Amino acid sequence: MRAAKMDGWLFYDFRGRDPIAQNILSLPEGMRTRRWFYFVPAKGTPRKLVHKIETQSLASLPGETLYYSAQDELRSNLKKMFGRAKSVAMQYSPKNAIPYVSMVDAGTIELVRSSGPKVVSSADLVQKYEACWSAEQLESHLAAGAAIDRIVREAFQLAGNSVREKKTLTEFDVKKWILKEFDAEGIWTEEGPDIAVNAHASDPHYGPTAQSAAPIREGDLLLMDVWGKKKTPGSVYYDITWIGYVGAKVPEKFAKVFGVVREARDTATELIRKHIAAGKPLQGWQVDKAARRVIEKAGEG
Hints:
Elements: E1 8-13, H1 19-24, E2 36-41, E3 47-51, E4 64-68, H2 71-82, E5 87-90, H3 106-114, E6 118-121, H4 123-130, H5 135-164, H6 171-185, E7 187-188, E8 194-197, E9 221-230, E10 238-245, H7 252-278, H8 284-297
Parallel strand pairs: 1-5, 3-4, 5-6
Antiparallel strand pairs: 1-2, 2-3, 7-9, 8-9, 9-10
C-alpha cells in the first residue's frame, strides 16, 4: 500500500455481498446481519467498526474495535477509524470498469468520502492477495490441462470416426462422452462442456441437450468449449476452446478467419513476453488493444 501511495485498505461488507473481503480476511462462518468495516492502515494497527448488536462479528481479526448503532455514531467513528488517512482503497472500480472488483455500493462510497479520505480502487491489491495461485494450484491447473487436452483430442477423433463410418453422433453425445472421461480422470465441472456445430458455435453459451442437439456431419464447423478442474480442494479450472472442421480440407473462408485470430493471439502473447522480459508493467487493456488491432486491420473488427 505504501508503494502505491495508499494510506490504507478499507474492507466493508453487508450480508455477505463482498466475497473478496470474506476470503482475504479469512472470516469464519457467523451471523453478520449489520454493516461492518475493517481498516488496514499502511502504517499502524488495524481498526474495526461493528454494530453494537454484533460486537463479535470481527473477533477473529486483530486490531482496536469501535462500535456504532445510530447513524451519528457510524459517521463519527468512521472518521475516527481513518485518522489522518487521505487515500483508502476499497472494492471499487471507477465507472465499474472492472465489475469483478466493484463490490461496494455507491452510497457506501459516498459515506466514506464524506468522512474525509479519497476512495481509490483496490483492484491491484486484490490481484496480489486474491488472484495469485499457489504452487499447488498451478500444479492442479496443469494436471487438469493435460487430462482435458487428451480428452478433447479424442473427442475430435470420435467425431471424425463417426462421420467416416456414417454413424449418428450428436453434440449431446459428445458432451456425455467427455463428461464420462472427466469422471474417469478425476475432473469435475459445474456445467458444460459446450459442443456446437455451425450456427450453434456462434452462441457463446450454447449448451446442447438431448432435445436441442444437432447431429455432427461432414462439412460441419465443430466447436468444443471445455473446462474442468481436479476434484481436490483449492484446485483451479482449466478452460480451453478448440474449433475444427469435419472434412478432408478446411474451406478458405474458415482458414482465413482462423489465421486472423491466431495472429491476434500470437501478437498479444509476444507483447506480454517482451514486457515481462524487460520488467515493464503491462495491463490487460493494453494486451486486448494489441489483439484487437490485428483483427481490425484484417477487416474483422
